[in-house]
Amino acid sequence: MLAAINAVTVLGYLVLMSLLLDHGTHAAEPQIRQFKFASLGVAFMCFGIGRMGYVPPAHDPDQWIFVMEHFAILIFGAIYFWTGCRNTHAEERSGMRRQEEAEMNALVSLAAKRLEEEKDKLVRCRVAVSRQVCRRRSRLTA
C-alpha cells in the first residue's frame, strides 16, 4: 500500500514539474492549453491523494496540520483545474465575440457601400429630373 501511495506521489510530482517547467503554455492553442491546465489540476490532486496516505501517529499533536495540508493541496488542484478550464472557455468565447464583431463590421461596411450606391443613384435621378424640368421650361417659353 505504501508503494502505491509513493508511486502516486511521485507521479504527481513528475507531472507537476513537467507542466510547471513548460513555458510554451501561453503560446499554445486553446485546446492544448486546456489539456495542460486539466493535467496540472489532476497532478495536484494526485499529489494530494498520495500525501493522504501518510497519516502521522495519533499521539502527534500536529496531526491536524498534515490533514489540512492534504486537503489544501486537493482543493488547490481542483481550483486550478476549474480555473484553467474556465479561462480557456472564456478565451474561446472572446474569440467567437471577435469573429462576430468582424462579421458585424463587414455587414456595416456592406450596408454603407450600398447606402452610398443608393445615394449616388438618387443624385443622378435628381440631376436627370432637373434637366427634364429645364427642357420642359425651355420648350414652354419658346
Describe the 3D structure.
The protein has 142 residues and is mainly alpha-helical. It has helices spanning 2-20, 30-52, 63-141. The chain has one domain. The protein contains 3 helices and no strands. The longest helix is centred in the C-terminal third of the chain and has 79 residues, at 63-141. The termini are far apart. 10% of the residues are buried. The model has no long low-confidence stretch (mean pLDDT 72).
List strands and helices in order, with pairings.
Layout: H1 2-20, H2 30-52, H3 63-141
Helix pairs in contact: 1-2, 2-3
Q: How many domains comprise the coordinates?
A: 1
> How does the overall form come out from the CA principal axes?
rod-shaped
The structural class is mainly alpha
Q: So how many helices?
A: 3
Extended strand count: 0
Distance between the termini: 117 Å
* Beta-strand proportion: under 5%
**Runs with pLDDT <50, length 5+?**
none
Largest sheet: none
Amount of helix: over 70%
Order of helices and strands: HHH
Question: Overall pLDDT, averaged?
Answer: 72
Calculate Rg over CA atoms.
Answer: 35 Å
Core attributes:
single chain; 142 residues; mainly alpha
